[in-house]
Design goal:
Elements (H helix, E strand, L loop, with lengths): L4 H6 L10 H29 L3 H13 L8 H11 L6 H13 L4 H30 L7 H92 L4 H41 L5 H16 L17 H10 L4 E6 L7 H21 L5 E7 L3 E8 L17 H11 L3 E6 L5 E8 L2
Parallel strand pairs: 1-2
Antiparallel strand pairs: 2-3, 3-5, 4-5
Helix pairs in contact: 2-3, 4-5, 4-6, 5-6, 5-7, 6-7, 7-8, 7-9, 7-11, 10-11, 11-12
Pfam family, one: HisKA_3
EC number: 2.7.13.3
InterPro entries: HATPase_C_sf, Sensor_HK_TwoCompSys, Sig_transdc_His_kin_sub3_dim/P
Length: 442
Amino acid sequence: MTTTGEEHVTARGGPWWWTRRRSAVLDGGLAVVSAVECGLEGVPFAREAGLPVAVGVVFGLLAGSVLLVRRRWPIAVVLVAIAVTPAAMGFLLGIVGLYSLAASEVPRRIIASLAGMQLVGMLIVMFVRVRQDVAREDLDVGDWMVPFAAVTTSLGLTAPPLLLGLYVGARRRLMESLRERADSLERELQLLAERAEERAEWARNEERTRIAREMHDVVAHRVSLMVVHAAALQAVARKDPEKAVKNAALVGDMGRQALTELREMLGVLRSGAEGAGRRERASVPLAAVGAAAAAAASRAVDGSEGAAGGAVEGPCLSEIDELVGQSAAAGMVVALSVEGEVRSYAREVESTAYRVVQEALTNVHKHAAGAKTYVRLAHRVSEIAMQVENEPPQEAASSARLPSGGNGLVGMKERVSALGGVFVSGPTEAGGFRVSAVIPAS
């Protein structure tokens, strides 16, 4: 089982510079064997050099024990092995030291230099020893036998550990690179998951805002007109029964329209909740989270889809006449004027323009009952402009007492700004109120 780089670092449990305890035990065992070997080989070396045997043994023990630091200072181990090569000792020290050097992070040119020095030293020593053995045994061999034996032995003691060390070092570096890549990928996936959650939360907030805005547009205008008609109905119920019946019919029609629009919106929300539940129960790969969040975010910004992705057809500019007529039927003195060539626009543009006029008329019912109102539409080359302006309200305010949530102007501005348009509202010099908006045609 492979581990990531962080787990690999936390797995360090050995003493000093060892990453594992078993590595320390292995190096300790190799150092003991090497020290024993060099100590035994120090006996003939001391005799040949005319030194006390104890000196040769101690020298061999010290030289062989250097193998204990092969992982920390491989260059020092190889240098010691080269230094004791003329004394015909330290064969295990040279083999293991050269392997450790080749497997380490030491630059290749240093590895090649030290390996070449050890090869040359081993070649000279083996040539001399083989020649002495042949002369001592008085063997009759060809002239090629001594150099062949020296070259073969020296290559056999240097080439295999060097090649094996290079292979192990390359494999170790590859594994480290793979660990780093795995760690980087894991961090990227975590970052993507966090960003996807943030975008999903942002999309949910945008969707909630959009739904609240739609509910406000649907409910506020219809219910405001219903309250106005109900107040008028109460005022004329006894004086003018015929007009009271007419107002009652208008209230019923507006209530049915409001209920129809609310049912459509709630149906979309219900189907969206069911779809979201199915998606939550399904097993979704981590890589798809970002795409899903991005899709949800784009739907929220677009406003072209509901919570389940189903489209709800909004109002259009052709219904402005009916909207103005409803306000006029509620007792408002309202005049509609249209400039430019009438044409169709994108559904979002027409819906937003309709909602701006609708909300502006609703505000007139709430805050300036009985005031004369002017609704102007201007179809231009690359944009559509609308303006709703009312005169100062009459002294006798309406008895409807319509409440205000204070979100109408904010919602209109958000709608227009989302399409790249400009929205301005404020009181006029004459004491009335004006709402103006310009929306790009595409």
